Amino acid sequence: MAEEERKLSIDPATNEMIAKARVDGASIAFDRAEKMKPCPIGQEGSCCRMCSMGPCRVPAARNRDETPEEKARRTGVCGATAETIVARNFTRMIAAGSAAHSDHARKVVEAFLLTAEGKAPGFIIKDEQKLLALALDFGVEIGNRTNEAIAIDIGKLAMQEFGQQNGELRLTRRAPLKRRELWRKLEVAPRGIDREVVESMHRTHMGVDQDYRSLLAQSMRTALADGWGGSMIATELQDIMFGTPAPVFSQINLGVLKADEVNVIIHGHEPALAEMLAVAAQDPELIDYAKSKGAKGINLAGMCCTANEILMRHGLPIAGNFLQQELAIVTGALEALVVDVQCIMQGIQDVAECYHTKIITTDPRAHITGAMHIDFDEHHAPETAGKILRAAIDNFPNRGKNVRIPDVKTDLIAGFSHETINYLQGGLFRASYRPLNENIINGRIRGVAGVVGCNNARVTHDDVHVRLVRELIKNDVLVLQTGCSAMACAKAGLMLPEAAAEAGPGLRSVCEALGIPPVLHMGSCVDNARILIAATAMVKDGGLGDDLSDLPVAGAAPEWMSEKALSIGQYFVGSGVYTVFGVNWPTTGSREVTDYLFKEYEAVYGGMWGFESDPIRMAKLMIDHIDKKRKLLGLDKARERVLFDMEMRRSMEAV
Amino acid sequence: MNEKAENACAGSTVPVLGETFEPGKPEGKADGRWRQKLGTRAEEMKYLETAERYWYSKDWPGSEKRKKPA
Ligand code: SF4
What we know:
A: Substrate Binding Domain Of Dnak, Chain:A, Domain 2, Rossmann fold, 4 domains, six-stranded parallel sheet, 16 strands, globular, B: alpha+beta, two-stranded antiparallel ribbon, binds iron/sulfur cluster
């Protein structure tokens, strides 16, 4: 009974569609999560299946300290300790996350090179200035050369970052000098993206690296190869091809679907196909074709991070975040769910079979049994986009009568790239991070938090994100967001300037002066690299220390679920940021490993991990950390003085 | 502007900031597209050296003035 009463989502559109799915008999993740409980041994990282003498399960004692004898017994057949097993599993998760972001980046570099060579019809070098910035980063000659010639050189060098064997990834040069020195000293400066992932897989193979500190150092190098490598390359080259995001107005939630139009949702992570679909959806010929089938037009919306990409650059509406992907089909009004890579539930195919929706896979790396596949090839992008939309239009007459689109959607403003945040603080002639730093120093803004990550069917959908972010802004913490977390807060109305009314007085004052929301949408998951850059700009501007670990900032992924999120968290920690995760934590099978990550890491990296499932307590951990950093920077003096004055006043009144 | 004081998180009081943006709601796609204001390549390079001086200006020591570069 109690299980049934667990609130599944705070979002009314989601709850309405969960109820409809149950009536329609469609199997959705919310219900599967109730039936399929997580394996407690796997969840704490204590199961090793690295060889066929296992799997070996070495679960930790529950709710009590174990004796030394019990601890000694917790080994696999090969003698691997719980520490080694837990650290190996953690490292492999990070390797997978780093690989996902980086393989996305590799595809972007390939498309970028094809664009520069004029072999990708429909794609252009859109943002010359960002191209020039990358040319400076990569040491490419600018002079009077054409954008295409510069882009070819950048693309070739970017591609080398994957296969490089020694040295350091080029974009790590953007990090604060002190941070780079620390990475070198600790021997975690990433050498080459692929090398770090492969080495992690090797070192976690049976019988290789069997010291948890050593394994975790390699996991750090692999994560840094993601944040300051793969993810950053993806973000930067996507900006050059599709434009650097600037403020843009849009709407979010299932209510963006239209009853009288052909609805197409593009879901996944890579923006190239979505960009082409956005263009094709405006094609008068295709619109006429849609009309010939009885629809009034073509309505393209996004989901998950592909949605964030096209929202940030074109203001295209978002139909929902990760846990809403099956529910979009349940509306009965979706002609096609077009998917590329990452975070795509196989369950969508099963749900689609209850309705008329076509699942169209488009990436040769990601097929789904039973789904239609239309291969997306940059050489023929406009034709492929047209073919996909025609398939969706052809499906419109198959729409049944069981249609219900929730009347729920929220306005939002997105597009806060690092470049835009910089510009908004001074305009073309005085762009700077100085106003932000000054407002942190004078105490209007207490600090900055990055709140990112996924949804997770084990917790109430969107609830942890929204309550955490509300608590942070109430306490004058400016919040930067990406991914599904950003979508959760956008649905709650926190990405509108009016949301400043919910912020503490200092933050509200700054938001009202600039006309910005207290919660800034910075993009997709690979765009967490934008948060690294924004934080680095704060350091380099001055007045807040000389390393990222000096800043009054903290990070969180309150509803995380993917291995990518773990990689993101690890590269934030390795960059010096205290980072708190919710839901559950995958190393609790070893107290030593967990203590190392949660306590000792701070002395090593200046940043460490934290865990808390309750959003209010999570906010407190983050605010306490921000206050600790403010104190170390000497920014707490004013507070002590004022408190003393108030105390004085009270005692005077008492006399 | 700046008539009222507010409590800052640090416990001190700071003046309330005045609005610096133009009133009204954004309409249409063109709003917010500030990057189009950068015209020539020379202007773009100049902007990188000034606005993005943290990485692209040789004269910006910021918080990282060092005798020996890292
Ligand atoms: S590597 Fe060791 S702990 Fe892992 S499954 Fe094989 S024997 Fe068991």
